[in-house]
């Protein structure tokens, strides 16, 4: 009797296990075969490939402000702005800036320029020959005096070349195609302050350069190399700062100009 009861209990247990296995093939709480989980976004992944949410007139300005606030990187901002501009162009709300084609020089202008260059090369060769006759032991003062004497002796030739240059420059200027009128944009006070800051830093760097040139005049070759190396090392960070700020301000001004151009075309 006990054997029969045990057999019945084991049979019932096996039937229950088979029933659960068919209902959930992967086991209790398991996943069905072939079911895939959505892939998680890897750490550090950016939204560069993601299409922009909207194409609007103020989207460029908003993107620049987001980059400035550190919400997105400059690379992401550039990619987004490019997409916005592309969308605006496709909608006909922004036009490509077409630069006037450069006019080809006439044969007469080319021949005049070639003649001027030939005269300049001749004068340069003569001056170089005169200075070479002084010898390698010539002092700076002697070389300077010889060069000045050569210029005075050939003043008429130098003046003639200068006059020819002015004449051909006027001809080329008159032959240039008319430039399209640029949109008149009133910069914001913030942008004006940034421009003034960059200008001030450039002026400071220019004064340092002038002082360097003054020191180089009476220095030996070895001293010049040291002075130039020191100048580059000392002003490297300042030069890079000016470069980066100028690039950022240009991008902001460009965005404002294009936004104003779009608004004007809609009126």
What features would you describe in this structure?
The model is unreliable at 23-49 and 262-267 (pLDDT under 50). The protein is 69% helix and 0% strand. The termini are far apart. It has three domains: 50-97, no CATH class; 107-175; 189-266. The protein is flat and about 75 Å long. It contains eight helices and no strands. It is an all-alpha fold. The protein has helices at residues 2-23, 59-68, 74-90, 107-132, 140-153, 155-175, 189-217, 221-266.
Task: For this entry, give a set of tags.
single chain, 267 residues, mainly alpha, 8 helices
How far do the termini sit from each other? 101 Å
Q: What is the tally of helical segments?
A: 8
- How many domains? The number is 3
> What would you call the shape?
flat
Structural class by helix and strand composition: mainly alpha
**Number of DSSP strands?**
0
In round numbers, the mean pLDDT is: 76
Strand-and-helix sequence, N→C? HHHHHHHH
As residue ranges, the low-confidence spans are: 23-49, 262-267
